[in-house]
User: Fold these one by one.
Assistant:
Number 1:
Amino acid sequence: MPLKALALNCTLKVDASEESSTDAMIAVLEKAFDEKQVTLSETVRVAALDIKLGVTSDEGEGDEWPALREKILAHDILIFGGPIWMGQIGSVAKRLLERMDAFLSETDDQGRMPSYGKVAVAAIVGNEDGAHFSSAQLFQALNDVGWTIPAVAACYWVGEAMGSTDFKDLDETPEMVTKTARMVAGNAAHLAGLLQSNPYPG
């Protein structure tokens, strides 16, 4: 079956019409995934949703996590995108990880979490240090709740420390970012295809 990817933009910008460097990085990955016949069906601006605080799959009235959770789990590949703030992943991304904690108790008869057999990669941007630490935070947490992380799973860009240039302000995408995006997409697509045809036994 054709592989599908969903991107989560965890920018702190609530207005989806406001330009985001995370969107720009996700667009680089979208092009790379398209070359591997993986369709990016949607990019979700998470801050525009009402994702309640908590660690369950439904935190009650008005919580928009259940619908987003269903959408996430309907895809083969998750692009988890977000900015670096204070040297680490931002609060929007952390809230999603906390909500996925519920996967630990939502296993099937073989002990597999809902995310088993699905692949996650990262799209990280910032004008400060922290890309490696942010990807380490993401990948450890995502792996804990059942996601599979491929080799070379993070595509990132960081500008000059304490600088004012954002990724979205660049005239062109740096060659190494494009090269890395292709490797991320290729490895993720390969792994997702293997898991689709041969799921984890549990």
Number 2:
Amino acid sequence: MFRRRTRIQLKTPEQIELMRVAGRLVGETLALVAAAVKPGVTTLDLDRIAEDNIRGNGGVPSFIGVPGPITPFPATLCTSVNEEIVHCIPRADRVLREGDVVSIDCGAIVDGWHGDAAVTVPVGEVAPDVAKLLDVTEESLWRGLAACRVGGRLGDIGHAVESYVRAQGRYGIVEGYGGHGIGTEMHMEPFIPNVGRKGAGMQLGPGMVFAIEPMVNLGAAGTEEKADGWTVVTEDGKPSAHFEHTVAITPDGPQVLTALDGWRERVAELG
């Protein structure tokens, strides 16, 4: 989200450990917010939970004040429901209902270092095709994370995401938005699309830290930006899913900085 241009920043092992602190806070915040998702809750309720947890644990929300085409972003979370893909502003009148899905995108700064992650959560029981969409999108994220290895190429990441999604059925992979470098700023170079050619692009090296974030639509890939300058929706009105983690490229393999438990085993399964 919020693509911004700057140079590629390499981190030392000690700096990656500092980013892990921010990443863990993001992961813990997402878990807390996801647990609060239920029918009748508003997206503004979720935003308040997130801001309280981040500030109460020594962090600062990354998203508040990010410049936009019309106004700065005003909230801690992006809470995108159903056909909303990314960047939707939390609102008191946006009430979650049974069968909805909500993408919760969260960023936090701790001691000058950023973490960024997202999860899409079902509200109660959802339709089987929507549940599968969430599963496919989350698995495609892990395929992309596993491709973040020293000596690989940038195109390997998008290729891993794209090839998995294409093999699962007729889904629309959002191409205008994607992952990014991250570190002392939330959005840094390079931009990381969710489609790609294996072996193409710059070589991946130790110290690079990326946010990988597949966005996959149940229908076509087309998108539309709403008048608020932030909210991005599917052109055909069908649901979308969005998952994201921050990952460091190290000589020992990918380190998923925003995951809480089980990520080493998950990466090893795909490695």
Number 3:
Amino acid sequence: MTTTLSTGHAGAATASPRAMARAGGLHPFGVFILLAGAFLPIMDFFITNVALPSIDASLHASASSLELVIAGYGVAYATLLVLGGRLGDRYGRHRIFLGGLVGFVLASLACGIAPTVGALITARIIQGATAALLIPQVLATFHHVLEGERKSRAVALYGATSGIAAVVGQLVGGLLVSADIAGTSWRPIFLVNVPIGVVVILVAARIVPSTRSPHPVGIDLPGTVLFAATLTALLVPLTEGHSLGWPWWTWLLLALAAVLGSATYLVEKRTERRGDVPLLPPSLLRLPSMSRGLAMVFAFSIGFGAFMFVFALTVQNGLHADALHSGLAILPMALLFFAGSLVAPRMITRYGRAALSTGAIIQLAGLVSLVVILVGNWPHVSLWAIAVPLALVGAGQSMLFAGLFRSVLADVPAHLGGIGSGVLITLQQSGLALGVATLGTLYLTQAPHNIAHAFADVEYVQMAIVALLAVSVAALPRFTKAAATAPVIDA
């Protein structure tokens, strides 16, 4: 039985990052470096939204090919996340994090120099696969090394980083595309990952401790293959169906997804009964924090992914803003999300679940105001007019992100931290992709008739989700100071 290294605030502030890593601890700067490593892959899911018209003009891509630029990344990312967590538990989170980040940087370079849309799609799939290796190691390292208040704060900051990266992705994408650096158009949105990624690799190699589960388990090849096939069969037709006119094979894949999902559950249940640890342990998913928190993260992500997608299209196609102004339009939301993320951990510790409900209400107020302004003044809507509603949306989302991520892993044993982290981010990523595929399809179907009302219809669904979350947070574990400071022991 090993006890996690205890690192108080004073020790964390005075010890050098490298010395702490050698002792098995994690310096606050190490937390920042891990979050920086997670920031890039999350941002890359959203950064292409404002660049698609430029990619189309440069590579002469079809509509379905452009969707695959996003879908290929998302499907590879979602299907391999749990496996990434398992590999980190078994072979070392530090090693898998660095290896995944090296692969992500090389894939980003390949995206940036892709000569054809086929090469870009292939590089994006590799990007998604390598992102799935490195992302779960971040939460698993926090879960294994940190304890009490520091762990709660780091997990909350990870949730905040996820949301900030999503919002900043569209902002940075718009800035880089509009800058047209040396006539490279959209390519810098991928090439920017290379220098940043190299810095993170060099620093993380020195100051992030090496950890692994004290009870490493097998890879569970049948569960991995079935789970990957289920998500692929679900996400590919939902993402591509609308642009292709819903051919027969999309419906066949959706039916197959249901069959594969049932088979996955039965195989995983049988594996656990046999005494082995499956890819998705049913007993882990039955933990109150996991079952309730995951459902809420999934619902939240559907609304969030859809919002980011349809907002970019509404601003560009409806209000005729260029990529730069489309990216800048989201700035109020990004700024308030960042500001809210800084105070969210303290607010949640002090006020508990009431902080999450308040965040949901603030977000709901922002969405309602945004729809009223757009529908009531369309098409004469300035970007300044929607700044305050977007700021409210960002402030409210920051509290929900931080609280939901903190809740999901509350009951997960430390030696299953990698698996729990992988499941959490898989559900988040799957929700983002499903939001784009389902509510995005609703938008694309109605936009040719009335863009403002198409946007409003999507937001009515998101409002319903947020209202439900405001009530449902009562089912989450209590966020008390006692719970936040309890010691962490690896069994």
